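Need residues for this backbone.
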C-alpha cells in the first residue's frame, strides 16, 4: 500500500503505516519496554496523588507499591502471553483493592492487559478476567469490607458498581472494535498480496507467450534457411548467401521484438518504445513465411482493432503459420479474415497438409498460448484436422472487449 493513501486519511480503512512494516510475529517477539516503563511511572505517581485525596483509605506502603509495580510490569509480556498478563493484572488489582488502598490508576494495567488479550484473539480469557475482577470488587465493597482494611470503612454504593461495570464494558467494547479492525486489515493485506501474485502470474504468462511467439516463428525461419544454406553452400553459393541474408534479417527482427518485450519488464508503467505489432504487419509475416518456403495467401481485410485485440490476432496468425512451417508437409497456407456485423473478428488459417509428425498443427505451448490469448479477450480458438485433409486454426475474437488486467 502506498504511503499517500495512508497519510491521506485512509489509515482507518487500511491500517496505520507502521502496521504494514511489521508482521505479527515480529511485533510479538519484541518487548514493549518504553511503554511499560511509562505506564509504571504513571501508575505509581497517580496512585500517590490519589492517596493524598483519599485519606480515609489505607495509606500506600511498600506492599502497595509492589502490587502496583507487578501489575504494571506484567504488561511487558502482554504481546507474548496475553492470557497470563490479563489474569495476572486482575489478581494484582484485586489484592490492591482488597487491602483497602486508594482507588486510582491501579485499573490502567488491567485495562491494557484486557485490551491486548482481546485484540490477540483471547476474548473468553479477557471477559472471564473482567468478570472475576468485577465480582471480586463487589464482594470486597459490599461484604468483605467489614473484615478488611481500612477499619471502620462503609459499604460502597451500588451506583459506584454501575460505574465500574460501565468502565469495564467500555474497555471491552473498544478492544473488540480494535480486534475487528485488526482482522479486517489482515484480510485486506492477504487479498492485496493475492491480487499482487495474480498480477505477477498474469504478467509472467503474458511475457512467456510473447517470447514464445516471437522466438518460435523467427527460429523456425532461421532453421529452415540454415538447412537451405548448408545444402546449397557448395553447389549454389548465391542461393546460400540469400539464405544467410534471410537468417540475418529474421534474427535482427527477433532480437528487436525480444528487446521490446524485455523493456516492459525493466521499466514497468512506461510507454513502449515501439508500437506493438498488429494485423497491419501481415505482409511481413507473408514475406518471412516465403523465405521459409511457405506461400501464404491473405483473404479479406481486418477492421480497425483495439491494440490488445490487434496484437492477439497478429500473434495467433504468426503462431499458426509457424506451426505450418514446422509441422506440415504443405508449402501453401491461406489466412482468411472476416468480421461479422462489426462485433466479431474471425481468423481462419488453413494448410493442405499432410502432417510431418504426430504433433501436427502444434500441440504444445504454441496452441496453448493461442487459446490463452483468445480467452483473455473473451474469444475462442478451434484447431484440428480438416475433413478434406490438412489442418485448420479458427479464432473468433470480439471486436469490443474489456481486456483482463
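Answer:
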Amino acid at each position: 500500500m502506498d504511503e499517500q493513501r495512508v497519510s491521506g486519511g485512509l489509515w482507518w480503512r487500511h491500517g496505520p503505516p507502521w502496521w504494514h512494516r511489521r508482521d505479527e510475529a515480529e511485533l510479538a517477539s519484541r518487548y514493549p519496554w518504553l511503554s511499560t516503563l511509562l505506564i509504571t511511572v504513571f501508575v505509581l505517581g497517580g496512585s500517590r496523588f490519589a492517596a493524598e485525596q483519599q485519606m480515609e483509605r489505607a495509606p500506600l506502603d511498600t506492599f502497595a507499591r509492589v502490587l502496583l509495580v507487578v501489575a504494571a510490569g506484567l504488561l511487558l509480556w502482554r504481546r507474548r502471553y496475553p492470557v497470563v498478563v490479563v489474569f495476572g493484572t486482575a489478581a494484582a488489582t484485586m489484592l490492591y483493592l482488597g487491602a483497602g488502598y486508594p482507588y486510582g490508576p491501579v485499573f490502567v494495567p488491567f485495562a491494557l492487559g484486557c485490551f491486548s488479550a482481546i485484540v490477540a484473539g483471547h476474548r473468553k480469557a479477557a471477559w472471564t478476567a473482567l468478570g472475576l475482577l468485577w465480582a471480586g470488587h463487589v464482594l470486597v465493597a459490599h461484604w468483605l469490607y467489614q473484615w478488611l482494611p481500612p477499619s471502620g470503612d462503609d459499604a460502597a454504593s451500588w451506583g459506584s458498581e454501575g460505574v465500574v461495570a460501565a468502565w469495564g464494558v467500555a474497555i471491552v467494547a473498544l478492544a473488540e472494535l480494535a480486534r475487528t479492525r485488526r482482522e479486517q486489515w489482515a484480510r485486506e493485506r492477504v487479498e492485496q498480496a493475492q491480487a499482487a501474485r495474480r498480477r505477477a502470474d498474469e504478467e509472467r504468462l503474458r511475457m512467456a507467450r510473447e517470447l514464445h511467439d516471437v522466438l518460435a516463428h523467427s527460429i523456425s525461419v532461421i532453421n529452415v534457411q540454415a538447412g537451405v544454406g548448408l545444402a546449397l553452400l557448395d553447389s549454389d553459393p548465391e542461393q546460400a548467401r540469400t539464405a544467410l541474408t534471410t537468417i540475418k534479417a529474421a534474427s535482427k527482427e527477433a532480437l528487436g521484438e525480444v528487446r521490446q518485450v524485455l523493456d516492459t519488464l525493466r521499466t514497468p508503467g512506461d510507454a513502449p518504445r515501439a508500437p506493438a505489432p498488429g494485423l497491419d504487419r501481415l505482409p511481413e509475416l507473408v514475406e518471412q513465411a516465403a523465405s521459409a518456403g511457405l506461400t501464404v495467401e491473405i483473404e479479406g481485410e481486418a477492421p480497425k482493432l483495439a491494440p490488445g485485440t490487434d496484437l492477439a490476432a497478429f500473434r495467433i496468425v504468426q503462431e499458426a503459420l509457424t506451426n505450418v512451417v514446422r509441422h506440415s508437409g504443405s508449402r501453401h497456407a491461406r489466412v482468411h479474415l472476416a468480421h461479422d456485423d462489426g462485433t466479431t473478428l474471425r481468423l481462419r488459417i488453413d494448410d493442405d497438409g499432410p502432417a510431418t509428425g504426430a504433433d501436427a498443427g502444434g500441440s504444445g505451448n504454441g496452441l496453448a498460448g493461442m487459446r490463452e490469448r483468445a480467452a483473455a479477450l473473451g474469444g475462442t480458438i478451434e484447431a484440428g484436422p480438416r475433413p478434406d485433409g490438412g489442418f485448420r486454426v479458427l479464432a473468433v475474437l470480439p471486436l469490443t472487449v474489456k481486456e483482463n488486467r
